[in-house]
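Notes on consecutive records. When two proteins share a document, each keeps its own sequence and its own token line. Never mix them. Below: protein one.
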Amino acid sequence: MPGLTQYGHDAWWLMLLKAVLIFVILMLLTLFNIWAERRVVARMQQRIGPSVNGPFGLLQSLADGMKLILKEDLIPKTADKVIFLCAPLIVVVPAFLTWSVIPFGPTARLPWSDTHTPLQLTDLPVGVIFVLAMASVGIYGIVLGGWSSGSTYSLLGGLRSSAQMISYEVSMGLSFVAVFLYAGSMSTSQIVAAQDRIWYGLILAPSFVVYVISMVGETNRAPFDLPEAEGELVGGFHTEYSGAKFMLFFLAEYVNMATVSALATTLFLGGWHAPWPISFWDGADSGYWPVLWFMGKVMCFIFVFIWLRGSLPRLRYDQFMHFGWTRLMPLSLLWILAVATARTIDLRGGIERQWLFAAIAVCLVVIGSLFFVAEKKESDAAEDAAEFDAAEFDAFAGGYPVPPPAKVP
């Protein structure tokens, strides 16, 4: 397993080249993802989608970006101008910085020299924690953008977005713990190297499922796009933004989509390792093939984002928060306890693995049954409330008219 000593020794021009390449890749990926989303959703809805600007409409995203840049830039009179201008930067800069620790591939030789360098800008002993930290910084930009706009709708959108992202960041962080226990490291490159035989998405499937749900909520994407609920908040935290500043929020959203997809690929799908059965080929993980495997896996997750947007309706806000705090987090904690127990026994011995897995499966079935019992009780309570509302109501029973009891939504 490669160590962290291979990082930090590149020449300054090579580091600058890597940073520029990452920036260019993210910008092109964003333009492509916007086009792909519009085309795929159009196909799902039996429409055409972008087809005029460029071949197959590929330049439509670029045309939209130019329109936003050239559009008149407005600042509300009641806005705090300094914070209003800085908020989009606080959101978009961490989105790009996160990719500094994402491994695109193993160590490779530059085609014009004999220099070997890892296909990664840098790495840290706590690389995954760095990703979470950058995501947390982005939340400040959203809150400040909503607060500094001087609009009630923007403020409510910012508060809802921050509550949503913070809640699902907890579940996202808990889903990483099982990966850390198996890999024995928080470094992204070492986690990928530890998956050379089997992917953690298979042996740690509950963590993978929790992460996939959390990453959709973290990026404010449908069906969890509650901060932008048009019927309630007009447009969310960026209601008062226009022109280039709105474009930065839009850019950060699509970069974050790619970021969580790349992180899922790194932690659960083997990173740049070739998928089975291509992995049996000796040259599958050599040259620049790993970059293609990595980008292919990322694009699969991007398609899942688009698929969800074109398929599922938006959830109610209380249902969404209730699901995160009362379902995802308890399941994540119980799964971490089970994984830690299994890992300790596996390292120290003392019990056969099949009996351990059977006990864990029984515990998961019991816990799932308890969740269904709780949902049944809530459903019965809602039915009782509905029957009470449907009963005959005498407004003059107390001698004077009173309004009927409020209905449970």
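Protein two starts on the next line and is unrelated to protein one.
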Amino acid sequence: MSGLHLVHILGLLLLSYTVSSDSLLGSRRLILRSIDNEKNNGDLRDYAVDLNDTNFGAVLRDTPATFAVVEFFAHWCPACRNYKPHYEKVARLFNGPDAVHPGMIVMTRVDCASKINTKLCDKFSVSHYPMLFWGSPSKFVTGGWEPKQGKSDIRVIDDARTADQLLNWINKRMGSSFGLDDEKFENEHLSSNVSDPGQIARAVYDIEEATSTAYDIILDHKMIKPDTRASLIKFLQLLVAHHPSRRCRKGTAELLVSFDDLYPSDMWSSSNLEDDNGKGSLTNFQICGKDVPRGYWMFCRGSKNDSRGFSCGLWVLLHSLSVRIEDGESQFTFTAICDFIHNFFICEECRQHFYKMCSSVSGPFNKTRDFALWLWSAHNKVNDRLVKEEASVGTGDPKFPKMMWPPKQLCSSCYFSHDQRNNKIDWNQDAVYKFLTTYYGKTLVSLYKDKGDLGNDRTDGALEDLVTSTNAVVVPVGAALAIAIASCAFGALACYWRSQQKSRKPRRTWN
């Protein structure tokens, strides 16, 4: 065979290999594209939360959900593999940032075939696969299940072979009417929270969501400027002292410790000013913890995507601050909130309207009661303005219309009289203040008072130097003494801040 023929044959073989390779590559691309399409369509998405012995307690302890479903399975079990799509159809409704019904039920799975979970599965006497349990998350953390025990807070879900059967079981248990075809904000299961005072307890999670969202807005819009720096520090100091969530207080304190380094008062005159306005460094601070924002609202969830949410969560935060301060902090709180809204709330009309109400106040606030009632009155003025505007353009939320607050369903004693024709109310302000302190104070965190990262738990030793050393402003004595937060880590932060401040050269303050 001549060399030419050999080259020709080798060329043909190479061409054949290339065509075959291209064909195989094309088939592979087609398969990958098909898989990607299935993922994008949600067909392969896992919604249930995988738990194991190391994270079981932490996840169920921290979930905002009222109920939990735990599926015990084995990855080698054919029946478990076949059941998974049914379980995921139901989990889609309740889990994740795109949940149709968020904050109600957390759907979880535990693989008993994994050795790490042996003791956990024994704790719940798992006798077959899959095996499903129902109960409050806290009961799963503190208890177990025995087949012969009498009354138990944890129940076996005994009729759930399909997604329909599982959801029917849940509906019977909860008295609900959830459907597998429910879509986000397009359902009939959204209940009003007006007539149930206990629902405000769930707003702790929305306050965390609003706090984190506000922080992200400030960074995204590069809103920290020479003339806004001081007002932001004031508001952060207020949050460290009185935010209802301990994890938000802790995150805010950590931010304040480093604030002067990230945003020194003379940084705007420096030729080395970062283009990103410091955002890159500040985004390392998770102001309310690593799991926030969650991407959904609970107490503040509207019946459609563009209603309530952030504005509701922010209002609840402000009201909760107004009833948690001491008398000596009332004027500081008033100026901190007014300046924060004026400088960092990006809805222009709302911002101007709120600032106008702030500017109309003639004298200082000397009592917590006076400031709390002023904020309540201001909120009602906002509602009165918005309800008229929403009615004229049809943008209101039909399930949550703007109203005078509180309604009679929540506080009948708050009304001396109500002229409904002219919408004139003679308020009993003593009763209103009592309602505000209970509703936005005690009741707000009562549902989760056993969770140390939410309540307003404090140590006996006051960390008076924690927020008073910032160059921009000085917190009143009452607020400084209120920074006795229940965490040894906060003590370390205070000591660190004190040493940092003593070693710094004095800087010009922004007023």
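For the record: The chain has two domains: 49-174, 199-503.
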